[in-house]
Amino acid sequence: MTSIGLRSDLVVPLGDGGRIPLLGFGTWQLRGREAYEATRWALEAGYRHIDTATGYGNEAEVGAALRDSGVPREEVFITTKMPPDHVGRERRTLEESLAKLGTDDVDLWLVHWPPGGTAGVDSWRAFIEMRERGLARAIGVSNYSLAQIDELTQATGATPAVNQIKWSPFQFDRAMLDGCRSRGVVVEGYSPFRAARLDHPVLRRIAEEHGKTPAQIIVRWHIQHRVVVIPKSARRDRIVANIDVLDFALAPDEMAALDDLGHG
Prior knowledge:
- The protein is an alpha/beta fold.
- It has helices spanning 32-45, 59-69, 90-101, 121-132, 146-156, 174-182, 201-210, 214-225, 236-243, 252-259, and strands at 11-13, 19-21, 25-26, 49-51, 77-82, 108-111, 139-142, 162-166, 186-190, 228-229.
- It contains ten helices and ten strands.
């Protein structure tokens, strides 16, 4: 199977000059041996983008899976995130993440939530410093509003490369998508299945027409919107199925019908 991270049509540029694979593997709620095995299976299946976080408690297992996989570090895009209550401990948090992952840097480091509901300008300045030190190749945010992103940009001159938010056809928000893109921010969607109704008749009909599962249709919808998607599973068969979305395309009317689910 083709490695996702190695296909030029399956990556999107980041504002700082880097690139992020459109399809990654999420590890939320995976712990211990389960996290290790799922990450190994994902790398074997062809994923080259792994998403973790300090708060997930699985960075060590993700790092071990990467080392044991035999896949070169430079071929894998690694994201981790800082919890909002770690404000003031940014550098130590990232250094602890790198030690657990067993890497010299991460490809993307995110503020996991707006700290205290604010944009967290001081914390963002620390993120910029860690990027300048080479510990994070790109920096971004998660669960931020457009106004909060603007506050960071106006205060520091540095715009987040990514905004990772809950996203699926049922959360489709054209204003948010266009707003991020106009600012040079890549939208990355998490919980694509938890945020969806996999039994919805429109989704099931499109899936049946393509001989795919509703979950595969959702992944494909993200890719065609050029929105990064990070499906998670602990089951090997589903991990493999979620990357098996490159042999078909959704028609414009199907994309529109899926977009409309967000207005239902």
